[in-house]
Amino acid sequence: MSSRPCRVVTRAARLAPLLLALTLLLALAPAALAAPPEPTMDLEQLGAALESGPLDGYMLTTMSGTAPEEIPLQVQSIVDYSWGSLILFEAGGPKIEEIGGVAAGMSGSPVYVDHGGFNKLVGAVSYGDMFTLGGMALATPIEYMAAIETDFPIEPLTTLVSPRPPKAGVYELASPVRTSEGVVRSVVVARSVESARTVDAAGGQTVMAPLGILEIGGARPGSRTFERIAARFAKSGLLVKAAAGSGEWDGAPAPALEGGSPCAVLFSQGAVWVGAAGTVTYVDDDTAMLFGHPFEQLGAIDAVLTGGYVQGVWQSSLEPYKIIAPRDVKGACVQDRSWGVEAQIGREPGLFPVSTTVNDADRSVSAHDDSSVVEWLVSSDTWPTLPGTIVGEVVYETLDQYYYPGSAATTTTVVVSDGPDTYTVQHDNLWSDSYDVSYLAGRDAGSIVSRLVADPDGVLQPRIDSVSVETTVSSAQRSARIAGVDLPDGIKIGDNTVRVTYYRYGSRDAETVDATLTIPTGTPLYGRLTVTPATWDQWGGSWCSDSCCEFDGASPTDGPPQTLEDVVDELNALPQNSDLVVSYLPRGSGEDSDSPEESAEIAATIPTDYVFDSYFTATTASVLLRAQPGKVPYGGAVQVVGMVESAGDVSVGIYRQNADADEAVLVQTVTAVASQGAATFQAVVPGLKKNARIIARTGPVEGSLPGSASAPVKVSARVWLSGTDPLVVHVRPSAAAGKTRLQRRSGGRWVDFKTVNVKDGKGAVRLPKGTHVLRARFPGGKISAAGVSRAYTIRVK
Q1: Average pLDDT over residues 193-212
Q2: pTM attached to this predicted model
Q3: Which of 68, 119, 562, 746 is the most exposed place for a label (fewest CB within 10 A)?
Q4: What class is the 12-210 domain?
């Protein structure tokens, strides 16, 4: 008959508040509390039994294949600390002596003691001795593990604060323990195998570290994928090893799980599989408890639970470990807590496919892989870049080259849903790298998925349905560098040609590509022109096509929370690495303003066939221009004066652009004469017949780009009257049009008389009989300013 373990954190001093917590739990959940399906001994009972001396027992663990076997041990003491207790024991026998100690991968192995004629389950192997006393280890009390089922139900009713795993540090034993290797007076608990290696143990100390194994399959040790995954799970503290076997087992199923069975917790299956390997502590109906310590203490999870197969034990006096290969899927892991991992047998984990197609252009061969990733791992934003990591590894394995300088063209497709609606993100891209392009092929997959699952306002609830990447990889570099930028026609209001000169990799010949930058009317023509790769700062880092940056948060936005459709649209509009962005940032807020304030940036995109690894930025030459007067009569002249910021004389072209013309006409070229850092000029522009913009243009000045400034000039229309019947109203320029007011002299003032529609420079109207003193007032427009005729006397019979 099984006994219900008490949640005793220490002994008597902590018993009362814990009983109160259990009473609360019983009130909320009247059903039977979780417990292992066999006799157990809790900490209080174990402590009382140890007062008579060490207790003999055994642990169940698998040393080869799938069948658990007994390893003799002796429970020595209970190690108390501020958050809970661990059980100190020493394993022995020929198997332990042969392999060099309690091995990594034994975590979760159930520990039994012989008490009162029964073998009672007291805990699970969790921390093992490192480098000091071979058979020493720590076990997690069984009541801590069983409480996970109660404290964190799949449909949670309440949450209690369970004991925490031991903090790193030195814990003195209440009394020394004599072992086969010597006397132990204190236990050093290290949070990871790596930190345990740095401990300089004193006499009478044993150093403990977690006995789980972080397995990375399908990626070679030392590769970028392997090291990146290992770094991602570094805080788990587990021993990192290359996984044995396959990520998807298609052979005969492993036996049903039981206490002592090898097992694995996987976050992905296929070409790259990642997870932890260890041992089952117990199985109760459809519930299994594993490990005796956390994987990464992620809380409620959804991960693949597989059976395991021990292919052997790596013998070492320093670091023995089991070689555990994953087998068939047995269920899903649902909790990753301080004192173990809970799994549900028969539960189906949520996975989505990650498919990769690699075309090796150099060898004219293709490869395809279909892997799968735990959906929870991605949608919870725990590890959204894993799909991209898998893609990169598939490319690496296909190329079979540790470093692969070259280029990769990729098409990344991600399907995402939020329940009622499904959306697709598709992004074509080009990558080029002189070091290793294979890993970059998966960069978009990681970045796009990261953006989709980032949910800063908690309203999106996205679910990734699939990820696919097709890439063509070549050893040919497709990179280029910008050599210079020019404004061949200067800078002006309207369409501007921006010419980028570049050198592509492997060529000494300069090439050019043009962009059209449209500058709106009223924009200052002095500012900074910049040409950059489109993805230079796309994800909040530096240039992303040749760096290690990956997106790790949502784009900052104003206003209400984005919808998933908004995010998808944003991602579908992303530029490619091969795009160049030409941007112009004008200075000042008005046409002739000297204000240093920046106006809105103007930008254009240039699609190219290369990934650029440099940028260009320069200001236009600073030019000022004024026209005097600002309004002249039809056919009149205007004087312009200006200045160029230059230490030397500068040639300045004076242009006139009529209001109805697309292009400016050169009027004359003058020299701006330098004095004290500024070159000044003046000129007269005669014969103005339409509203116009007078423009002063320079070439590059002292390293700057060509500069320009303009000044508007209004030209009054010429208006006159002729004829009798009908009366004709004439307006020049002839392109002027509009309703012209015919006014009559009456009582010493001008009053509106008739309206004449002027088209192509003239309009006609019939008048009533009599003598009239008239004049015509043209209202002006785009072509010319307002004009008025002289008085005209007419007698109509």
Answers
A1: 64
A2: 0.76
A3: 746
A4: mainly beta
